Amino acid sequence: MIDYFNVSNCNYHDNLPANCEIFQPLFPLIYCVAPTDMPVLIIGEDGTRKSLIAKMIHINSKRKYGRFIVVNCENSNVNALEIELFGQEQNKTNHRTTQVIGRLEQAKGGSILLDKVESIPNIIQARLLKVIHDQEIYRVGGINVVPIDVRVIATANEDLEYAVKADRFRKDLFYRLAVFPVFIHPLRTSQDDIKILADYFLKTITNRTNKIITSISDDTMKLLMNYDWPGNIRELEEVIKYAISVEKSNKLQSESLPEKIHSIYKVKPDFQLIDSGNEIIPLDEIEKQALVYAMKITGNNVHTMAKALGINRATVYRKLEKYNLLIK
Q1: What is the pLDDT of residue 82?
Q2: pTM to 2 decimal places
């Protein structure tokens, strides 16, 4: 039985409870693909800890004693990113450039993580095809083939199939990278995980800061569980970290949460259901009234509203905003 989603040689915030519903389906995938050298594409929103999944794959592979190198592909400077990946050959004529060993060479015998791979410029995408297929590169400005030995793992914030259809990503590279795709669901899809992770972050952060805060109040937890977490796990961790820093008691109170948790999704109290008599009500008005009624019945519990209405919480929030039912 795995109690924690552990990654060796990481900071405390890179270890997460393994009983999260978000991560449970991933364990069989990790242990299936880790022993192979297959490229892996990990897809999920910002803050879902894609890099953690990548490192789990690395440390459970035959390459675990090799380096695990992360390259941020959002580098807006194409030349800089190209040199970072492939290195640069020394110009022996004028000595204006020195030899640079790129990340792909540095990762020899290990794994390289191409983070936010959807951001890679097209010119570099073409070169990566050769890396994955032939395990060799040319340094920038060089003419000699340099053999490499590296496993490629990539992360993306969007499904790359959409990027391919929009001509923003090469189809051939997509198929090379997506030999083994892994999808991570956003935090808002699993309310139970919000409580599990909030309790976990409370424990780990207080242990490191020597603050004595033993639990989270019911009111605080209700606010946390009703928030939509666009920044996912990373945002939840930062919110708990902030709340711990300002909390004065031994229980985390709602007053210590950042203002965004309190204010963004407060429901306006002055909307009433209407009796239309024999008039035909426009569909938008019917939808609005259904939301008002659901708010009244559930006590403004967005999670319960979403279940009762048969839609997800993100959709509930969008509709509440559409009909001006929220206090900003």
Answers
A1: 93
A2: 0.78
